[in-house]
Structures are given as structure tokens and as C-alpha cells.
What we know:
Distance between the termini: 37 Å
Strand content: 15-25%
Structural class: alpha/beta
Bound molecules: fe (ii) ion
Shape: globular
Largest sheet: 5 strands, mixed
CATH architecture of the largest domain: Alpha-Beta Complex
Strand order of the largest sheet: 3-2-1-4-5
CATH superfamily of the largest domain: Carbamoyltransferase, C-terminal domain
CATH topology of the largest domain: DHBP synthase
Helix content: 25-40%
Radius of gyration: 21 Å
Amino acid sequence: MKILGISEGFHDAGATLIKDGKILSASHSERISRIKHDKWLHYTQIDYADKIAFFEKDWLKRTRQWYAGQQRKKSRINYDVSFYHHESHAASGFYTSKFDSCNILVIDSIGEWDTVSIWKAWVKRGKPRMAKIKSFKYPYSIGLFYSAITQYIGLNPQEDEYITMGMAAYGEPIHYEIMRDHLEYHNNHKGIRYLPSCFRNEDIAASAQSVVEDKILELVNEYCLHENLIISGGVALNCVANTKVAELGKNIWIMPNPGDCGSSLGAAALAYGKKLNWIDPYLGTEIKRDPKIKEIVNHLINHSYCGVANGRAEFGPRALGNRSLLADPRRDVRDTVNEIKRRQKFRPFAPSILEEFADKYFEGPMNEYMQFVSKAKHDYSSVTHVDGTARVQVVKQNCKSILRPILEEWHEQTGCPMLLNTSLNIKGQPMVDTWQHALDFEKKYKVKVF
Ligand SMILES: [Fe+2]
């Protein structure tokens, strides 16, 4: 039976098609429509399916929107079954995990009413079960608080939160108490209305980040006693906070697309009723080209950077080698790549490293999906943040991306086992999806794409 899970109507619409436990495709609307954070599905994502599952309860969401004074357009798609917003977030984690039992911590901005929920999950007679053990409801919201801070410091809410996280390393958490007060006692849906003008943005970001980290650790320590922990919801993209949780010694699984787009997968999984066969996040549009590895590496050696668009697009916000802009981390390429991507100068880049060398060059939690930060034990400044950390992608031997053979050849020729890896897009625009997008990118931004 084919099941289509869909999420749309707020931001970052997505669709996941599964058949008998296999994920056939999972895609992000913005990549196809080319509208950043597109909240509606593109017609090409609506495939034939025996059942269509929606990621939230429309009627319940309307009660909260009525309370909050918001208006909303209903999904235009007729679905067969729907699940609660946080239930879909939780399932996107549990149904793709290897855990037989665990806790699930869901933290996002807002769905229906829940903004934080904690679950226990287990498998009974082959069937996954989830039970909510605690929830916090709107207007209290860690996600809305972080978005309000993002907006206050002049960035785009629901989009630039990761920039706020990066900026935090440049500040000191000297306004911690004020930020904590905002989180606990204010309705941050209305934004942060006033902070003294003498406050530096970097210190505001650092203080907010510190408050969020502490709050997450408190939630984990109080409610998530199982050694296995799944983190889901948009806040699970905060890799600095994830790292603090990992340091508690938990086994952590975060599906690479833990936000609302990934909830399309959660809804499909719930409708299926059994765990899915998770292999990797290369689930989107396919480009079949197989470029020559030696040619790519020679280009990197001679020109410092290039794009790669090959295989299926990653499901999730991180480019993991199939829609990536790669660069030589041994050179001072940070400003050049930031300029190409029209990004702020302080923005750090992530390294992708052969798994055999990961422990030699980095210390701390790291995995194949760039979900944690670890301490750099090398001098490659282009891939090291100001605080000495990096959001590492460990490229495993069985990684299906072309990135693996590129790194092997790169290491062979240069002795360096890592490359700078950033998404193949310009700031504020969706990632390259098709080969035509790649050609357009090459022409417009003068970056050779393989
Ligand atoms: Fe959500």
C-alpha cells in the first residue's frame, strides 16, 4: 500500500511517499517551487497513493489560531487521516530510529496547542507505540521565543534561527535573566517588544541560546530518563543545544529533517503503523550524472571550490554531498565562499570528513547528519567557528553520496581528509534541486558545478 504523508499550511511544506515500509521519496516544496519556505505543496509532490495522511489536526489548530487572533488557509488537499502536530514530529523520529524503547522530546514553535511535548515510546509485538507523558502549551514556546529573538536582532524569524545560534558564539550571556524572564513569562508570539538599546545583538543571541540550552537540559533531566532519546521539532536543528544533551551521555537520534517538512514522513509512518526502513536522507529529486571524481578533485586543487549536484537531493536543511558547494579547507576560503553565497562574514562553514579520520581531527559528539558540534583539533580556520567548534559531517564508508569517493581521492592527493561543505544555494534562496538549477547556478554565480 502506498501512503502519502503531507505537511503544509504554515511554512516548509513537505511530502513523503512510502510503500510497505520503504521510503520512496521525501521532498521539500521550496526546492521544487523555488519559493523559500513555501508553505504549500507543489502539484508534482502529490503522487498516486492509497491513503493520504495529514500532519496535524486542522480543527484543533483553528481553536488555537482563533485564540491567538490568527487567520489561516486550510490545506487544499483532501486527506484520509490526520494526526496531532507533535505526534507527527515524534513519529518522524521514532519510526525512523533503531530504538525499541526511548523518550522523545519534541520542541517547536507552534502547531495546534502543544509547543513542547515529551513522550515515551516502545515497540510491542512489532508495532511502535507512543504515549505523551508531558506537554507545555501555547503561548509558552521555546521555538517562538528563539524566533522572536531572531527577529529582534534583525534577522528573519522561522528562517534565520541558525544564524542567531552562530552569532551566539560572538557574545556573552550577560542578559541571561532578562531572556529567561521573556521565555517563561511573555507571549513571544508577539515578538520581543523592548530591550535596552545598549544591548549588543551578539550578547542577546548568546543569552537566548544559553537560556534555551538550559531549558532543554532541564526538560531532559526531569522527563527523559531513558538512555535512548529522540529529539524532534524545529528546535532539534539547534546543534549546539543538541551537543549539550549528548554530553549527558544519552544515545540520541534526530531524523535529519526534524521540522514541519519532516513531519510529512511522521504522518505517513503513523498511517502505516510500523517502523520504516530508514537508510539515509537522500530521498528527493534525482540527478543522474556520475561526474568524474578525479576531475572534481583536480578542480578543487586548482580553483579551491566547486559545486556538486548529483544523486538524490537531501531531505532536510543540510547539504550532505549531493547538493553541496565544496571548498579546500586548507586555504583561507571562508570570505570567498561567504561572498559567493551572499552571507554575513561571521558565518562559519562546516567540514565533511572521512569517518576514519574524524576522531583525529575533532573531539566530541558528531555524526553523519551535522547535528552536533565538536571541538576542532586542527588549524583549518575556514571550517572552525570562533569558539573553536565545528558542525562536522562524518562521511561513513557506506555513504551513498558522491562525497565519499571525492573525499577519498581528495585525501589521496592532498593528505587532507576533509572538505568545507555548504549547501549549493545563495542565502535566502532554496537549494539547487535539478540539473537545470545547477547549470543556472553555475552561470549566474560563476561556480563550476559537477
Ligand atoms: Fe512543528
